[in-house]
Amino acid sequence: MTPELPGALARLxxxxxxxxxxxxxxxxxxxxxxxxxxxxxxxxxxxxYAGAGALSLPGVVGTAFAGAVVGAALAYLVxxxxxxxxxHRYGRYVLLPPKRFAPVEAFFVRNGGKxxxxxxFLDGLRQTSGVLAGISGMDWRRFGxxxxxxxxxxxxxxxxxxxxxxxxxxxxxxxxxRYQLYALLLLVAVVAVxxxxxxxxxxxxxxxxSEGDGGGED
Length: 218
Description:
The protein has helices at about 5-10, 15-20, 20-30, 40-50, 55-90, 100-120, 125-135, 140-165, 170-215. It is an all-alpha fold. The model has no long low-confidence stretch (mean pLDDT about 80).
């Protein structure tokens, strides 16, 4: 018997009832590959179904894990093949010109592993972390390791919550997503500060070089 899903999860019930594991795989894949679909919400709803016996928990975890890994890998390929050219050609239209993107890329080069491990829990980063890894030139083997670990962690947490809390997941999910938003805002603020510092430092260095060249002519 299928359980009554609360709140936002209820809107996804028809997908689970008609398409089951295929819906979990596809939406999780897209949610990890640049497409803002409710993959995380569907994963949680599927785990609630598993807790009620309507789906198999290993089946939900396995299909969601496969979708997360494949989705992020596709995003990585997009970034590796055409991401840098896109930033140079169209970045200014999305407020991310190459000069502004450079500090973001440098931050990812230094912290890419940690970002990939926890990015799945932040909307926006979950969809784009793979493409950022590709643009920054992260080695595909290193990316693969963190992609697998991050996918396991993300799927395990949300599947565990859905399975263990059942139809009470509505309140838990709302609270977790609220704190997830706060974490994303904090991350955006930190990145903005780092980018601003990097831009100001480059301007000071350029000014110092200009003054030095001028002094050499005298």
